[in-house]
Structures are given as C-alpha cells and as structure tokens.
What we know:
Isopropylmalate Dehydrogenase, 2 domains, twelve-stranded mixed beta sheet
Amino acid sequence: MTALPLALTQGDPSGIGPELALMAYVERRSHDLPPFFLLSDAAFIARVAVDLALEIEIENTSVAHVGDVFSRALPVVDIGCEVAGLPGGPDPADARSTIRSIEQAVDCVASGEARAVVTNPIAKSILYKAGFKHPGHTEFLAELAHRHYGGDYRAVMMLWSQELAAVPLTIHIPLSDAPKCLTRDLIVETGEIVARDLKTRFNIAKPRLAFAGLNPHAGEAGALGREEIETIAPAITELRARGVDASGPFPADTMFHAAARAKYDVALCPTHDQALIPIKTLAFERGVNVTLGLPFVRTSPDHGTAFDIAGKGIADPTSLIEAIKLAGRMT
C-alpha cells in the first residue's frame, strides 16, 4: 500500500516559503523525502522556479494523483486563489491565499487524502491587516481541528531537533505577563499533552519531562521568587501522581549542556526564550516546530518568512527538509 502524501502549505508567498518548497523538491532524493504536494497556485510557483533558475517541472494536479506526479514534477494542488507573491514585498491582498492554503491542508488530512500538514512560515502582521483573528499558526490550527473533528484542542508548541526537544509553557506574550499566566493548571495540562504525544507520535514508552524554573537559580529556595515553590513544584507533583515522569524545577542555566540533556526527553520552560534560545543555539538550521495536542500531525520549519532574502536563491531549505522528514517519521 502506498503511503499518503504530506500536505505542504505555501506560507506567505512573498517570503521564502515557496522557494524552500522548490528546493526541498530538488533535494528530495538525496534526503529520501516522502511524497508531498504544495497547496498554492501552479502558475505562481512556476514563476518562482523560473526566477530562481530552477529547472524543475511544476504540475497542477489533484491530491489523488500526487503519487503519480511526484517522481517527475512538483505536484501543486490549486487553492482557488491567484497569488501575486512579490519577493520581499508582502501584501495583505495575498493573505487569503496564505490562509486558504492552511485550511485546505487540514481539509486534506481530515478527509484522509494526506497524512500530515507541513506549514511554511507566515507573517502574522500581514494577516492581521486582512482581518486574521488568531494569535498565530498554532491557534488557527486548533480551531481548524475543532471544525473537522469536534471537541476542543489545546495546541502545544514543541521545538524539536536530534539534540534537544523544548516546549515553552507560555509563548507569545510579554515577559512581564509570564508569571501570572504560569498557572498550575497550565503546567499540568501541557505536561500531559506532551507526555501523551511523545508516546503516540515519537514512540517513547515513558517520556521524561524536565521542567525549568522561572527565576534565576530556580528561585534559590524562595530568595529569588516563589513561583517554583508555589506553582511549578506542586504541578510537577500532580503530574507524577498522574503517572507522568516529571522532574524539576531546575535552574534554566544548567539544563542544556550535553550531560543534563541526556537525563530527559523534553525540556519544558516557563518562558518562550528559555526554550527557544538553547535549541536555536544547538540546531539553528535543523530545528523543527511541532504542534502537539492536535488530532493530526503538523510540523514546520523553525524560522520566519525572511522577507529580506526572499527571491535571492540563498535561503537554506534544511529546516523545511527536516520538518518534512519528521512529519513522515511521525506518521
């Protein structure tokens, strides 16, 4: 039986997403990538290929025929929107195509036509100008999951590489808001989602979760803050009572050297940068953004739209290639 293909979104068409998709297709054999299709406008993608002097075939096709097309051409499944995509010149007029590409990718997975979603980078500021109401990709995907599968889903962002997997407990909020948002319920719910998906998606029989403290030196027994004592440690105790292998809270400045990383499978950090700085230091080109807590697999490169280099042919496709490989592995 032939495995289902992966659904790859275009991202912001004025960023590097479309050219990364083309480059990933060029390198498909050397990286043994599973079949994928790009949700975009074939005429636009063909223009990008010409502008980058990439001599590859682009074929407008249906999802059902991706398996037949992939060996000879990049399959592009039409999203019903024209795409302008001026490199480096993002335009809110293209927001509809960006959003539709994401919606259609989830449609394909929910209908059983694709096995996972791989998303290229979007620019939220551009989408907001066109009326986008979600804080980001992750929250939008949770809503799409609700549309298709019913129920409510809390999506959890995990940054993954061979060297480190890290989860920020609070994400795109001001640093000053993190202490009040870091509740016991948030920590417990996130820990359970992470532990469950590491079992089911990553085949780790008993995932080891290590929690970082919020304050320097994990609060120094209360001298530098009490969040560790009053919030994080009780949450860890509750997770253990629920059968999760959770430990900490540990000082964040000693959690990420090689010997420390060997003692856990994932680090959970109170703030965004506590989690993202170490993984981007260890695996800047190879990190993958994985969304946990959804009824389908979603991965994404761990970088932005890079409007400043779009269209110049110098973007590095490594993170997207790793995202495609990981989506294939997880499904």
